[in-house]
UniProtKB/TrEMBL annotation:
Residues 466-478 have a biased composition (Low complexity). Residues 639-677 have a biased composition (Acidic residues). It comes from the Eukaryota. This is Uncharacterized protein. Residues 79-106, 448-479, 606-679 are annotated as: Disordered. It comes from Polarella glacialis (Dinoflagellate).
Length: 760
């Protein structure tokens, strides 16, 4: 409550006049104005007038005089009230006049608002009541800025006015033009927080007319738009808005600045510093957090110091800093920002050549253990090394062996991805090897400070006729000028220490370590991916080495210059078989379980015919017995022939369609599939020759196109969309699809799309 409140009230101190009657005795009375100076009594104002329709109440006084001025149809006063509410809904009731407003807001939690009351000269009164939508910074400012400007302009010089709404707390102060001095500081502090702003008088002295300085602290509910994951930062404190308005000729407008600031603006966000926090403001034009023009003021005990050089930073809105915050944790996904030349230098420093057996294995833990030195240095260059980056860097470092480089990039990228998946799942890491834990700890630093995250949405200029104050409150295309701590301390009348060193900005300069980063000849050649299957079908002395698991041999196979070598397989310690090639002592791991080594391969043998014999008959004549035995033998042979014919017919027929002719595809491969148990996938999938087959499904009246390699999975079906196509028509489409898959270089998805265009 203002100490000068008595100057606004024409009633003597201590009296309570309710238009010749007491409000508690007559709730329907009409009140002109009233004033209460009591420590015990709670007074209420009840007005039955439809034009006002407001309920005001106050608790016991706390020692100073609480003032109530109620606007009615017969007075010329403006009402500002003290309210408290515990309602569960969010609503807003606004009573406005031609030059002033009175806002009463209720929030989802219990709040208390204290507003200084002033008088105005107006007799017209309108009332509007509505429900407020989602709380944002713009809606909160629009709700209370008119009332704040009016109250501050009518308040005495040097008296701060506080307005508290459901979404923010606003503090404003009027500074008359005659009282502004260059050596003064206008400091506004948000009640109940450590947020404050100090505006130098030299900055305000250049404004024509009176000045209104306001500081707005938004609640956490209003910061969702700026703290969302797509912006790459979370706020440690609610954002703060600072505005400077000029009042001239009874009109309020944004102040316009030009030139350099002789004394910086000091903004305090927190009472104590955080080592991992960084001050920033929201750049509306570039749609990102920025710290250009901000200097840490740790020597003063404050968190941020804003140094703005010219009007480009302020824009036309004259909002010094639209949103302040402390982003301390990055939420967005870490992107790869390294160049192939940088990774190539690390690769050359760690390897003389790429040893295939150190990474061509299924155990990613062993891969990391063998390449921990390279991964440690590579993760310092980029936090997300992808396969393309590693392959390009490998081609620059080892251009003579592209197939080994491609496999190296794939295996190490999968190993890092495996560690990233374990990052949030492991508890104490007792079961992990130390090298894997080291990589996981390096990946955990991806959630470090990322205030200067790259924008994901393009900047948009405001529509014609719309002010930039709402759309682009603060942005700059100029680099910040660093100010020494001695100058900062001197501007606030403090003595500088000799130990204070100038802190350089990290985002101003970009230094390239060598000319190699800009060398046009160092770019990787546009080489096609190696076709291992083609290398096997057309051997050539190229020096390439390919190792893969042969499912039919159940052994590792190595191809060197077109020559194939089969490894000797034996049981491995990790449950998977290992192989050793002739004349070598190096052991290679595979994905084939040890149990498959003991299974012998055997062909399916046909059933042998068994002659069924009956017990010997009783003694009869030899001729009769011989004739009877011959007739029975002929009958048995005929019966057995019929059974064999029936079995052959059943085998030839398809198991799921007896009415149609048999259409068994690839009988040799089908027999091999029935004979051999499923094996593990090959280590190098590109080394397996693609082959496909089809299978008819009676229930669904469709052909299934299946792989005849690796997992033998079904990739798509050939089925009539409306049921009008018969089996013969579907068979023709399926055969054409198989021809494209087996003979051309079309992908499975491309053939599937073609099949969808052929069927109806």
């Amino acid at each position: 409550v203002s100490a000068n409140a008595y100057s606004y009230c024409s009633v003597d101190t201590g009296s309570l006049d309710w238009a010749q009657s007491r409000c508690d005795a007559d709730p329907t009375c009409y009140v002109l104005y009233s004033r209460l100076c009591s420590n015990e009594t709670t007074w209420r104002f009840c007005n039955a007038s439809v034009s006002v329709g407001t309920l005001l109440f106050s608790g016991p006084d706390t020692g100073s005089c609480t003032q109530f001025l109620v606007t009615s149809t017969t007075t010329r006063t403006t009402t500002s009230i003290t309210t408290s509410s515990t309602k569960s809904t969010t609503s807003s009731t606004q009573t406005s006049t031609s030059t002033s407003t009175s806002v009463t807001s209720t929030s989802v939690t219990s709040t208390t608002s204290t507003i200084t009351t002033v008088t105005a000269t107006s007799t017209s009164l309108t009332t509007s009541t509505g429900t407020r939508g989602p709380i944002t910074e713009a809606s909160v400012l629009a709700e209370a800025e008119e009332e704040l400007e009016l109250l501050a302009s009518a308040a005495p010089d040097g008296v701060a006015v506080v307005v508290q709404t459901a979404g923010a707390t606003l503090v404003a102060q009027m500074v008359r033009s005659g009282s502004i001095r260059d050596n003064m500081q206008v400091k506004l502090t948000v009640p109940g927080s450590a947020i404050s702003a100090s505006i130098p008088g030299a900055l305000l002295n250049g404004i024509a007319g009176d000045v209104i300085v306001s500081v707005t602290s938004f609640n956490s509910s209003g910061t969702l738009a700026l703290a969302s994951p797509k912006h790459g930062a979370a706020l440690a404190t609610p954002p703060v808005s600072i505005r400077i308005l000029q009042v001239q000729g009874g009109k309020t407008s944004e102040a316009i600045f030009s030139g350099e600031f002789a004394t910086p603006v000091l903004v305090e966000l927190m009472s104590s510093n955080l080592s991992h926090a960084k001050c920033a403001y929201w750049d509306e034009t570039e749609r990102r957090w920025s710290s250009r023009g901000l200097t840490p003021a740790a020597a003063l005990g404050q968190q941020c110091l804003g140094q703005f050089e010219d009007s480009n930073v302020l824009q036309k809105s004259a909002i010094i800093v639209e949103h302040w915050g402390l982003p301390f944790m990055s939420i967005s996904r870490v992107k790869n920002e390294a160049k192939p030349q940088e990774v190539m230098r690390v690769m050359r420093a760690c390897y003389k050549s790429l040893d295939l057996h150190t990474f061509n294995m299924a155990d990613f833990g062993l891969v990391i253990q063998n390449h921990i030195v390279f991964l440690r240095q590579c993760l310092l260059v980029t936090r997300r090394p992808n396969e393309g980056l590693l392959e390009q860097a490998g081609l620059l470092a080892f251009p003579e062996n592209p197939s080994t480089v491609k496999l190296f990039a794939s295996q190490l990228c999968k190993a890092v991805q495996n560690c990233r998946q374990k990052k949030g799942k492991i508890t104490n890491g007792a079961r992990q090897i130390p090298e894997v834990l080291e990589i996981i700890k390096l990946l955990e630093t991806e959630s470090s400070v990322s205030a200067e995250s790259s924008p994901r949405t393009p900047s948009r200029s405001p529509p014609p006729g719309e002010s930039l104050s709402r759309r682009a409150p603060s942005s700059s295309s100029l680099d910040g000028i660093m100010v020494s701590p001695g100058r900062i301390l001197a501007s606030y009348g403090l003595k500088a220490k000799s130990s204070h060193a100038v802190t350089e900005s990290r985002e101003i300069l970009e230094i390239y370590s060598s000319q190699e980063a800009h060398c046009s000849q160092c770019e990787p050649p546009a080489l096609p991916a190696p076709k291992l299957a083609a290398a096997i079908s057309r051997p050539a002395a190229t020096g390439q080495v390919t190792i893969y698991l042969d499912s039919s041999r159940r052994a590792l196979v190595r191809v060197i210059d077109g020559q194939m070598q089969v490894a000797e397989m034996f049981t491995g310690p990790a449950g998977f078989a290992m192989g050793r090639f002739p004349g070598e002592i190096v052991e290679y791991s595979s994905e084939m379980p040890n149990l498959l080594l003991g299974i012998t391969q055997s062909k399916k043998q046909p059933k042998k015919l068994k002659v069924l014999k009956k017990p010997a008959a009783k003694a009869k004549s030899k001729a009769k017995a011989k004739a009877k035995s011959k007739s029975k033998a002929r009958a048995q042979a005929q019966e057995q022939d019929e059974e064999e014919e029936e079995e052959e017919e059943e085998e030839e027929k398809q198991p799921d369609d007896e009415d149609l002719p048999a259409t068994q595809e690839y009988p040799e491969e089908q027999e091999a599939e029935e004979e051999e148990p499923p094996l593990a996938l090959a280590i190098v999938e590109t080394a397996v020759v693609r082959a496909y087959g089809k299978m008819w499904y009676k229930n669904t009246k469709s052909y299934g196109i299946r792989q005849k390699f690796l997992a033998n999975k079904q990739i798509f079906t050939v089925r009539s969309k409306d049921g009008s196509m018969k089996q013969n028509a579907l068979m023709a489409v399926a055969d054409a699809a198989l021809h494209r898959l087996n003979t051309s270089q079309l992908s499975e998805q491309a053939v599937k799309t073609w099949v969808g265009q052929q069927v109806r």
